Amino acid sequence: YWLNWVSQSVAVADGSNHHLALGDQFGTLALLDAAGRMEWSRALADGRAFDVTAIAQGRLGGETRIVAAANALVEGGRAVIESYSVRGQRRSMQAVDAPVLYLHLGDLDGDDRDEVLYVTGMNSLEDVCRLHIANEAGVPLHEVELGGCQEAEITTGPEEGEKRIAVRIHPGFLQGVPP
């Protein structure tokens, strides 16, 4: 992956095998083995993506998957979310209508299958960010308006015996002091 600017990365554990998934500014997702050797690379959105904006890993469809989001001008949206097996087989592709700022996979309902959580950023039609929750097939389960943002992070975990979602957003700019 020499001479490519890596914009996103995530460690991927698949049983006893460890990998590193990398996304670049050209819309390419690649998987390296623990020794740093390239296992595979894929052009997201069938080569129409131009920047990987988020990567996550988790269990979808009974297997370890890498999920990546990229800006792409595609039918039905301005970005895509795609999932891949650790062998590089594309399992799903979904168009979304705004740039994806962050991806997270987590089992919210205790069924041993991760849900896909992602934050979309502001676009030309809206000046708010949104948290989206979808099942492993990409079917929307829930959506929450967050307010304006340029950056976001998501985490999930137990609190008082229940699964909780925490979302951090940041407007990405500093407001000046009024005169």
Mind explaining what this structure looks like?
The protein is an all-beta fold and 179 residues long. Helices cover 0% and strands 64% of the residues. It is built from no helices and 14 strands. It has strands at residues 6-14, 17-24, 28-33, 38-43, 49-60, 63-74, 77-85, 90-96, 100-106, 115-120, 129-134, 140-147, 151-159, 162-170. The chain has a four-stranded antiparallel sheet with strand order 1-2-3-4, with no helix packed on it. A hairpin with a 2-residue loop joins β6 (63-74) and β7 (77-85). The N and C termini lie far apart (50 Å).
Q: How do you describe this structure in short?
A:
The protein has strands at 6-14, 17-24, 28-33, 38-43, 49-60, 63-74, 77-85, 90-96, 100-106, 115-120, 129-134, 140-147, 151-159, 162-170.
Features:
single chain, mainly beta, four-stranded antiparallel beta sheet, globular
**Taking strands numbered 1, 2, ... along the chain, how are they ordered across the largest sheet?**
1-2-3-4
What's the shape? globular
**Which structural class do the helices and strands define?**
mainly beta
Q: Fraction of residues in helices? A: under 10%
How does the major sheet shape up? Answer: 4 strands, antiparallel
Query: SSE order, as H and E?
Result: EEEEEEEEEEEEEE
Q: How much of the residues is beta strand, in percent?
A: over 45%
- Helical run tally: 0
Distance between the termini: 50 Å
Low-confidence residue ranges? none
Query: Total number of β-strand segments?
Result: 14
Mean pLDDT: 89
